[in-house]
Structures are given as structure tokens and as C-alpha cells.
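The protein record filed here:
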Amino acid sequence: MKYVVGLGNPGEKYKNTRHNIGFMIVEKAVQIANAKCCSIEETECLGNEREQVSGKVFKRGCKELLSRIFGSKSVDCSRWRSYQNMSLCEVSRSDEKVCFVKPMTYMNLSGEIFDYLSSEVSPEDILVVVDELYLPLGRMRFRPKGSAGGHNGLISIENSLKTKTFNRLRVGVGRAHTGAEGESGQQEKLEGESIIDFVLGEFPQSESALLNAVIQSAAEGVLAWAGSGIHQVQQQYNGINLRV
């Protein structure tokens, strides 16, 4: 089982903000996969069933867990389901199963999802999709490990996993002239605008076409990672510049 965790903040207020590009990308990846997944039954009310399912059940995979919660009727893979502090969906690709996860904890507590995901999952089977202020929109970087670079979502995940060695896809949301490309925690101003205001701001209409291209390309890269691994997607995607 592979786990793709897209970082963002829940709620309509944050839906189209730069900080939520991780959510956007995993949602697009699920759409692209366009396959049957999560053999579960449509239901709006979990009631006590949610509380009766132990987090340990998740060690046998998200499909079995969700089947116990929701039943056994098949629906398409665009269906996201709530479990504990996350929204998730499982997609089967050939012999590989991928569980897409959106933490519903708000960014600073993203790592809490790992209290309910399998304790047996290896960090090498996790890919975290995250916004990167110090890359311009149009650039992305797959990495097998690295620093949090001041990103609170990554800091939370590092604290939960107790390691910095897990795959991440950093997707640029910065301006074309935002300093040197890389991972930085430097708290600076962007033309009088604070870092937090910038990342919690929405993409302007002028960037909509570029944003759509970024989401599409990154989602395809996520699916390629699930099938081919980190080193191949690094070679294929790290040099892409969709701005030109």
C-alpha cells in the first residue's frame, strides 16, 4: 500500500488558497486514476460505527477498514470518505494500491493522521504533497527526504513519524522573483505582504491556466511515483518549468 498525503486546510474559506495546492493535486490524481476503489456503501451517517472501528484495523489496509465502516457496495474512485481526522480514498492501479489522504486537522496538526494510519507502513511508501513558497508556480520537486523548510505541515509530520526520511513533492506557489529556489524557512516579506497572508491568499485569475497545468502535471507525477518510485519521477519532473 502506498500513501499519498496532500496537505491543506479544510473548509470553504481555504479551498482555493496557495496553501491548499496539496489538496488540489491529490483530488486531481484520484480523478485521473478513474478506476474502481474503496468497496464501500454510500452513507451519510456513520453513527457509532465510526467509534467501534479500532485504529488498529487500518493495519490491514484502508479498503478493509472502510468496508467495515460503510459496507461492501462498489462506487467509483472519486468518492472521498471521512475517517477519524482525515478524508481518504483508495485507488487500485495494476498490482499497486494507493490510499490518498487529506488531513482534516488544519495544517499545523497534519501529522496527527499517522495516529490512525498503519503503524506498519514504511516512510518510503509515503508521499507528502506540499506547497513550496520558495519555488515559483510552474516548478515542482520530488525528494526522498529533506528538511521541513519552516513548513508547519511538514514539521508536524516529521514529529509524528520521528524521521525526515519520507518522500515529498514540493509544488511551487511563489512568485517568479521569490528569492533563490530551494527549501527555506526564512521569514521575509513579499512586497509588504506577510508570508502567511501570501500562502493563505487565493491564486489570481491571471494564474488560472498555469495553475491548472501545474495541478495536472503534479497529479500525473504522483501516480507515476506510485508505480515507479521516487528516483524515476525525480528525473522526469524535477526539471519541468511550466511557466515557460
In short: Residues 35-61, 68-76 have pLDDT under 50 and may be disordered. The CA atoms of residues 207 and 215 lie 12 Å apart. Strands lie at 2-6, 36-37, 75-76, 81-83, 86-93, 96-103, 126-136, 140-143, 167-174.
